[in-house]
Amino acid sequence: MPDGDKTTPSTQKARTKRGQNDPVHTESEDKNPAKPTTPFPRKGPGPGPGPGSGETEGIVCRLLVALLSLCEGLRGLPAPRLKPSDPRADFDSIISLAKNLLSDTKHLFHHFKSRYPAEGEHKMDTLPVLSMSAVELANIQVPGGLARLSADLLNYQKHLEWLRRAGPVLRPLEQDLGALHARLERLVKRLEHLMSRLNLPRPSDPLPVLPSHGTHWAVVQAGHALFHSLHLYLDWAARALVLIRNKL
Asked: What is the pTM of this model?
């Protein structure tokens, strides 16, 4: 063995073991180390449709055809009938109107008395007569009760129209009288509509024949009689409407 390469058996064994584990490096690799390369996308047509794509398109087409057939069938069906509203809801609205009209009448009556004071009790024979007892009120029925309310309120409406035509006597209250007349007219129409929905006959009572307006004092007395009677009647009507509603 030459003198320049002195290796012991243990050293040769270590080199052999290290050579088995270390990667082999060539001289060219050490001089020109490899650079990482970026892969370029492949040109040309992409991958073709998978084996299940045609089947999927067929399913989608069949679903669209089925939906179109369903829409065509629905067009021929009659429109669904709307459930008629509960008449008790109409009653609630009418009761609210009657209570508001009662409040307006009470306010206007006080205003009328302060502007046109007149002592004593004043009456008009053409106004409705309120003679129902508490027992009769408790036993009031839907057809008869609504018919009476409609006829009596229409009577009061005609009296208000008559009073508004009194000329310059009540001109300062023309706006208030007009507003009260409009609310009363609305209440009468709502009652008539409700009776029509319930297939109840409308009242056929003849309207009163009202006298001529006469003197200034006669108009004032008629106004006192009208507002006092309407105030009492609306208080009774509100309670009667509640009892009638509960019997539906």
From this structure: 0.65
